[in-house]
Specification:
The two termini are 20 Å apart. It is built from 12 helices and 8 strands. Strands 1-2-3-4-5-6-7-8 form an 8-stranded parallel barrel, surrounded by 4 helices. α3 links the parallel β3 and β4. The chain has 248 residues and is an alpha/beta fold. The chain is globular and about 45 Å long. Helices cover 42% and strands 17% of the residues. α1 packs parallel to α2 and α7 packs across α9. The longest helix has 18 residues.
């Protein structure tokens, strides 16, 4: 099965609304590629101006976070229906920074995945190990636990339509990158797990990204691996280099 490539930028807590529009306009001609899904996952305050700025382009907009309830007394949160109404198509769930800094556990992330599907959003579900876990030899044990917990009650058809992003925590924002063979090994392990939980068709359909200091110089090698279908890009998504990654 030929899986369509997906390159998503995770802007994190960067870019004011005016800066966001300027960046979108800078990147517009650089990210044109009919063979690749291009996504900008932006801070909540940037969503409305970025959705407007990408109109007529090949870029979809994603959110970096959302809450599990549709509305209510949850000061500071943003709901899935709000995102959909604003024109958002994707949402990042389970990024290591959310798990670590904001103590989001797998039961909560499982609820987020289900809520995203209920609202018609495509989840980009993140998983990954710390340096200590990799050096202890428990990388796949840890990632299997994350994914199995986060997908409880999620159907095969839903999994076929979602994105899973493998992000080794030790390679996020550090300049360190997993070798292409290390990244491929884990992404294949994730695909094998999906086949184990669901079936081969589901495993062959789900798109798996690599994240963790992917940049213009290493993207082509990483994306050449059979089980790496794209990238979740941090810092490099805020520069013109993002266009080179999309076209790698």
């Amino acid at each position: 099965m030929a899986r369509r490539r997906i390159i998503a930028g995770n802007w994190k807590m960067n870019m004011t609304p005016s800066q966001a529009v300027e960046l979108v306009n800078t990147l517009k001609d650089l990210v044109v590629n009919d063979a690749v899904d291009v996504v900008y996952c932006v801070p909540a305050i940037d969503i409305v101006p970025v959705v407007e700025a990408v109109k007529g382009s090949n870029v979809a907009v994603g959110a970096e976070n959302m809450y599990i309830e549709d509305k209510g007394a949850f000061t500071g949160e943003i709901s899935a229906p709000m995102l959909v109404d604003a024109g958002v198509k994707y949402v990042i769930i389970g990024h290591s920074e959310r798990r670590d800094y904001f103590k989001e556990d797998d039961a909560f992330l499982n609820a987020k995945v289900k809520k995203a599907f209920e609202a018609g959003l495509t989840p980009i579900l993140c998983c990954g190990e710390s340096l200590e876990q990799r050096e202890s030899g428990v990388t796949m044990d840890w990632i299997r636990l994350q994914i199995k917990s986060d997908l409880v009650g999620v159907t095969a058809d839903q999994v076929k339509s979602m994105v899973i992003a493998y992000e080794p925590i030790w390679a996020i924002g550090t300049g360190k990158t997993a070798t292409s063979d290390q990244a491929q090994e884990v992404c294949k392990g994730i695909r094998d797990l999906i086949a184990e939980i669901y079936d081969t068709d589901t495993a062959e359909a789900v798109r798996i990204q690599y994240g963790g200091s992917m940049n213009a110089s290493n993207a082509a090698e990483l994306l050449s691996k059979p089980d790496i279908d794209g990238g979740l890009i941090g810092g490099a998504s805020l520069k013109a280099d993002f266009g080179q990654i999309v076209n790698a």
